[in-house]
Each structure stands twice: as C-alpha cells, then as structure tokens.
TrEMBL record:
Organism listed in the record: Linnemannia hyalina
UniProt keyword Protein biosynthesis present: no
Key words of the record: Membrane, Repeat, Transmembrane, Transmembrane helix, Transport
Protein name: Mannose-P-dolichol utilization defect 1 protein homolog
Disordered: annotated segments: 252-276
Location within or outside the cell: Membrane
Length: 276
C-alpha cells in the first residue's frame, strides 16, 4: 500500500524507511524488530504528548486551592534537578527525542509548581532565585560549541561541562530521583492522605515510567538511563498505591482534629459546671 506523501513523510520520520517499507508497503507484520520498534516509537510519542499535560491538573489544583498542602517542596526540588540533568544528557547524547521529550515538558511544569508553592508561601524573591538558578544550570550543562581545528579540517566540539562529568551527573540522577519520591511518600504516610496531589499526575507518572522502560530497552543502549527508569517505576508504583489507599482520606486529619477539639470543649464545660 502506498500512502499519500503528507501521510508517508511523518510515518517515515517516525519509524524510518526500512520499517515503513516492511510494515506499510509490504504488510509484513511478522517482522518482529520493526514491530517492536514501531510500538516503541508509538509509546514514546504518546509519553511525550502526555508529558506536555501530565502536571497541568496538579497546577490547576494548587491554583484553585491557593495552597500546596500535602505536597513536598523538597521532592519537587530534587525531581527538577534530576530532570534538568537528564534533559541536558539526552540532548548531548543525541538520543531520539521520542525517548526523552517529556522531560522537557515535565521540567517546565515542575518549575511552575515550585514557583506556585513559594508564591503561596509569600516567598516571591526565593521563587525568582530558584527558577533562575535551574534555567542557568540547564543552559550550562547542555551548551556546546563546534569549531574547526587548527588545521582547518576537523570539527571540534567543546562544552562548558565535559561529557564525562555530565555522564557522572546522569548516574547521580538515579539516587536523586529516588530520594525525590521519598519525602512525598513519607508526607503521605504521616498525613494519612495525599493532600493536594493530583491522581491524574501520579497514575500517569507510573504508567509513563513503565512505558519508558520498554522504549529505552528498544531504542537506547544506555544502562544508566535504563536503571533510572526501572527504579523510578518502583517508587512511582508506591505513590500510586498510596493514592489508591488514601483515596477517600483527604479530610480525615481535619475531622479527627475537629472531634478532638469538640471533646476538649465539652470537658471544659463539665469542669466549669462543677466549679459552679
């Protein structure tokens, strides 16, 4: 089957000439490598599209409540740091954008959430300083320059941060990412609820990290990135389980507090009556 050019061009761009010919023109759906590659590309693009809106419900929830109660500030700081490093590493490694594109959107949304958390805490100056620092760090890590060597024949690439150091920082994002989940998991456990956390964000994060394991195995030969996604999936699973467990528990702490205060109030009335 021959598709019109306006359909063929994006299809070839996504799955390549070989797999396009195999799957679309020859209808050869027994070619396992192309099938796996096409599934990986589809999942990857779906994750990137989902990443563009994954934290929008969380942002809306914070704005509507004018509060970030129950959301760990340190969790978002650590996660954003890991995102900035991973984004720079993938860009410098020239990995397919379908394998990391959502990191760009998640980084922007995290910065918006951090800004809102500080804004509603009355810390506008701190918000400006933190957001500026993250943008500056991303620029430093990802910036490269190409120029001709002294003999005028070889293109030399220079960077403010060496690839070896960036690779080390990418390895460091594994514990950073994991520790970014721990404060939120502990916060949920202590409160017995998930506060202003968005269920859409939590469940999509879990599904996305699970799919990322598959796309990384299929398209990227990098054990550092794969290890990060495997462990991230585990911790996102814990958060998803907490969301399910505490689904109807958002108002429990305030109810208990109210019952305690009512109890103490009646006790006070009894004592006053005795004295009279």
């Amino acid at each position: 089957m021959h598709l019109p050019y306006f359909l063929k061009a994006p299809a070839v761009a996504i799955i390549g000439d070989t797999c396009y010919t195999t799957l679309i023109e020859d209808f050869n759906y027994t070619h396992v490598p192309c099938i796996k590659y096409a599934i990986s590309k589809g999942l990857g693009l779906g994750i990137v599209a989902g990443g563009a809106i994954v934290k929008v419900p969380q942002i809306i929830k914070i704005v509507q409540a004018r509060s970030a109660k129950g959301i760990s500030f340190y969790a978002y700081m650590l996660e954003t740091l890991a995102c900035v490093i991973s984004l720079a590493y993938n860009v410098r490694s020239k990995n397919p954008i379908s394998t990391y594109g959502e990191t760009f959107f998640v980084t922007l949304q995290n910065l918006a959430i951090i800004g809102l958390m500080l804004r509603y805490s009355g810390k506008n100056t701190t918000a400006f300083m933190i957001l500026t620092s993250f943008l500056f760090l991303g620029n430093i890590l990802s910036r490269t320059a190409e120029h001709l060597s002294a003999d005028g024949t070889t293109i030399v690439q220079t960077a403010l941060v060496s690839m070896d150091l960036l690779r080390f920082l990418q390895t460091a994002t594994i514990p950073i990412n994991l520790f970014s989940k721990v404060p939120q998991i502990v916060e949920n456990y202590k409160n017995g609820s998930t506060g202003q956390l968005s269920a859409f964000t939590i469940f999509n994060y879990f599904a996305g990290s699970l799919a990322r394991v598959y796309t990384t195995l299929t398209e990227v030969d990098d054990i550092i990135i794969l290890s990060g996604f495997l462990l991230s999936t585990l911790f996102n699973c814990i958060l998803a389980l907490q969301m399910a467990l505490y689904w109807n528990s958002a108002s429990t702490p305030s109810k208990v507090k109210s019952e305690k205060s009512d109890g103490s109030s009646s006790e006070t009335k009894k004592r006053v009556k005795k004295l009279d």
